[in-house]
Amino acid sequence: xxxxxxxxxxxxxxxxxxxxxxxxxxxxxxxxxxxxxxxxxxxxxxxxxxxxxxxxxxxxxxxxxxxxxxxxxxxxxxxxxxxxxxxxxxxxxxxxxxxxxxxxxxxxxxxxxxx
Length: 115
Prior knowledge:
By secondary structure, the protein is α+β, with helices and mostly antiparallel strands. 21% of the residues lie in helices and 38% in strands. It has helices spanning 38-50, 92-95, 104-110, and strands spanning 2-7, 10-16, 25-26, 52-62, 67-76, 84-91.
């Protein structure tokens, strides 16, 4: 489960610090822990990886490798943490120029954010 977070027309990406896909860019997120809802997992993972607190909305897009939920920042300070090497807000067109995790570009296309 991942959080799709926008600020000023840019989207938040994290650079993975662990396998699989070490060094690739993705949305902040991870696995659902036992007893968590997908929305709770998104909140927890975004906080751990980026330092940001979010409210989680509806499903933004899905691929065979990932499901993303819209999320809105409600607090915290942006900083890379947990298994993220970097985190930054980038323009949407930048996504296709970066080495990303499998399915990330598909999520943006399915959400109607990239053509």
